[in-house]
UniProtKB/TrEMBL annotation:
Its cofactor is FMN; FAD. The lineage of its organism: Eukaryota, Metazoa, Ecdysozoa, Arthropoda, Hexapoda. The chain crosses the membrane at residues 20-40. GO terms for molecular function: flavin adenine dinucleotide binding; FMN binding; NADP binding; NADPH-hemoprotein reductase activity. This is NADPH--cytochrome P450 reductase. It comes from Rhopalosiphum padi. Gene3D superfamilies: 3.40.50.360, NADPH-cytochrome p450 Reductase, Chain A, domain 3, Nucleotide-binding domain of ferredoxin-NADP reductase (FNR) module, Translation factors. Residues 83-227 form the Flavodoxin-like domain. NADP(+) binds at residues 301, 538, 599-600, 605-609, 642. CDD domains: CYPOR (cd06204).
Length: 681
């Protein structure tokens, strides 16, 4: 609106000559913007052009800090250390072994540090020769179908693709594997050989630990001989000093505000209250339990069909993937530890690494209460290893208890026998040990330092995302068994899941943290390709998803290939899971043939392997004449091995090949992903 006052104001503004006009200001802003854009673009291009595997060229303060943090050589030099122990770990065992080796280095005047290869510039290995009497040890697990662990993947690829000169690097390798799997310790064996090819010097022969037998015994035996080789190679002697120095120190956190205290989160504080995509091993999704129903029709065993609700999570899965479930320990066992040690489980504490150079500041999320640590972060149900026996000795007030612990911690034949019988055969966990050796009263914070991390449990997904895009299904047997000491041991995850029953009312539904782990267990790309599936018991789980996916394709009008399923259980009227579903798939033509073996429904036991032998012609017709795919899921120790032997025998007889030719044929099937196994021991 115009008025005389408004015109006057406008007139005044126009007629006065300011020092800087509006046009000047606008031009100045444009110049600054263009200059800033040019500067940052150049900086970004410079940084990106310099990116190379395991090589970081500092171009900013953050890059300098990153180089400093990733350079294990600088840490070794600045702290006067000569021993570095790298670990490739999926479940924490390799990391634990690495820590034990680094700690023992002090007995040989070799100050050590533990390092995660994922956080290190591994190209620095070429500089190890600059440190006098230096040694790099690798504790490496083989994971899945002969794969490196997630944290060792980059290092593995660097070794494969690089040609670094590692002359002057002294090294030793210990592998963690399982003989029931085909690719036993494959990654450790490769790393051991590749380091030598690149010019490094092997100080001690590779050790191969078998988790199907006694990996602790394998490790201890190898470790003892390792130090003998180290002494011989470097011309040093053992000091004889036992190193019981704590890796972490206790910090009282009673004054910490409640909102700064962890309550079970895996990594990020309050992550379950404020969920953020993407979800992974360090950031699981808190899923609601949508369905939890019993699959067994009768008997004293239980098998659960459970559906996790992922609607709105943005999580995607493929048929054949696994879902990881984060369990928690029972309150009964946790309370028992508090009672046995007369400890206040609700006291808030933190464990802080005494090694200021370590990238791992805490053994688990801190601060938290002892109750939280024992419930969510620590494994209190597995068999403790010998180093825990050793650490408990000082807390035994009864000489008999002390002697028993000393014996089990020793590497003598008598000690190994006692540990095997009293701990492994009798299946004692830390609670049982504290009960049966009543004078042993360790400080609770020290016990929390010693116990391994509670690991997530993996389950084959038994659904197809084509049919169930908003939920993930699993098929899980409830684990309960009585030990030789008349104790009932319960599976941590399955017993928790059994309690999570959804309600039909307005009450909040039970939840549990999960994330999806990708798998190579996949249907053929073409729906017309015929397949054979062998999955007794819960080995049926991934095949339920396979069948759903093929059924979906059939209903869409697409051509689908033959689907033959071999399923077995004890009794048809007791544990034939998903019976109605499978019969429907047979009736509608999705499932071409359903071969069933009920092992205890007749005097002589009958298994799926017997049916495979009987159907040799059908087997060869699909895998030999039609180039179909074969899948096995279930027990690795016996079933999967027996199936492999039968396949080789059928290929020999029906394909008219020699044993060597048949083995090569089956090997080629595996390489072509036409023979896939998803097994466990």
């Amino acid at each position: 609106m115009e008025n005389s006052e408004g015109v006057k104001i406008e007139s005044t503004v126009v007629t006065e000559e300011p020092l800087i006009s509006a046009l000047d200001i606008a031009l100045f802003v444009v110049i600054i913007t263009v200059a800033s854009f040019w500067y940052f673009k150049r900086d970004k291009q410079s940084s990106s052009s310099e990116k190379k595997p395991y090589t970081i060229q500092p171009s900013s303060l953050s890059s300098i800090e990153q180089t400093s943090n990733s350079s294990f050589i600088k840490k070794l030099k600045s702290t006067g250390r000569s021993l570095v122990v790298f670990y490739g770990s999926q479940t924490g065992t390799a990391e634990e072994f690495a820590g034990r080796i680094a700690k023992e280095g002090a007995r040989y005047k070799m100050k050590g540090m533990v390092a995660d290869p994922e956080e290190c510039d591994m190209a620095d290995l070429v500089e190890m020769k600059e440190i006098q009497k230096s040694l790099a040890i690798f504790c490496i697990a083989t994971y899945g179908e002969g794969d490196p662990t997630d944290n060792a993947m980059d290092f593995y690829e660097w070794l494969q693709n690089g040609d670094a000169d590692l002359e002057g690097l002294n090294y030793a390798v210990f592998g963690l594997g399982n003989k029931t799997y085909e690719h036993y310790n494959e990654i450790a064996i490769y790393i051991d050989q590749r380091l030598e090819e690149l010019g490094a010097t092997r100080v001690h022969e590779i050790g191969l630990g078998d988790d199907d037998a006694n990996i602790e015994d394998d490790f201890v035996s190898w470790k003892e001989k390792l130090w003998e080789s180290v002494c011989s190679h470097y011309g040093i002697e053992e000091t004889g000093e036992e190193s019981n120095i704590r890796q972490y120190k206790l910090v009282d956190c009673s004054e910490v505000l409640p909102e700064r205290i962890f309550s079970g989160e895996i990594s990020r504080l309050k992550s379950y209250e404020n969920q953020r995509f993407p979800f992974d091993v360090k950031n699981p999704y808190l899923s609601k339990i949508a369905v939890n129903r019993e699959l067994h029709k009768s008997g004293d065993r239980s098998c659960m069909h459970i559906e996790f609700d992922i609607d709105g999570s943005k999580m995607r899965y493929d048929t054949g993937d696994h879902v990881a479930v984060y369990p928690k320990n029972s309150s009964e066992l946790v309370d028992k530890i508090g009672e046995l040690l007369n400890a206040d489980l609700d006291a808030v504490f933190s464990l802080l690494n005494t090694d200021e150079e370590s990238s791992k500041k805490h053994p688990f999320p801190c601060p938290c209460t002892y109750r939280t640590a024992l419930t969510y972060y620590l494994d209190i149900t597995s068999n403790p290893r010998t180093h825990i026996m050793k650490e408990l000795i000082e807390y035994a007030s009864d000489p008999k208890d002390q002697e028993k612990l000393k014996l089990m911690a020793s590497s003598t034949p008598e000690g190994k026998k006692e540990f095997h019988e009293w701990i492994l055969r009798d299946n004692r966990n830390i609670v049982h040990i504290l009960e049966d050796l009543p004078s042993v009263k360790p400080d609770l914070d020290h016990l929390c330092e010693l116990l391994p991390r509670l690991q997530c449990r993996y389950y084959s997904i038994s659904s197809s995302p084509k049919v169930y895009p908003k939920s993930i299904h699993i098929t899980a047997v409830l684990v309960n068994y009585t030990t030789s000491t008349n104790r009932v041991n319960k599976g941590v995850a399955t017993n928790l899941l059994a309690q999570l029953i959804p309600t039909n009312d307005e009450l909040p539904q039970p939840t549990i943290p999960i994330y999806i782990r990708r798998s190579q267990f996949r249907l053929p790309p073409k729906s017309q390709t015929p397949i054979i599936m062998i999955g007794p018991g819960t080995g049926l789980a991934p095949f339920r998803g396979f069948i759903q996916e093929r059924d979906y394709a059939r209903k869409e009008g697409r051509e689908i290939g033959e689907m033959v399923l071999y399923f077995g259980c004890r009794k048809k009227d007791e544990d034939f899971i998903y019976e109605n579903e499978l019969q429907e798939y047979v009736a509608n033509g999705t499932l071409t043939k359903l071969h069933l073996a009920f092992s205890r429904d007749q005097p002589e036991k009958k298994y799926v392997t017997h049916l495979l032998e009987q159907n040799a012609d059908e087997l060869w017709n699909i895998i030999g004449e039609k180039s179909g795919h074969l899948y096995v899921c279930g027990d690795a120790r016996s079933m999967a091995k027996d199936v492999h032997s039968i396949i080789v025998k059928v290929v020999m007889e029906k394909g008219q090949m020699t044993n060597s030719q048949a083995l090569n044929y089956v090997k080629k099937m595996e390489q072509q992903k036409r023979y896939s196994a998803n097994v466990w021991s």
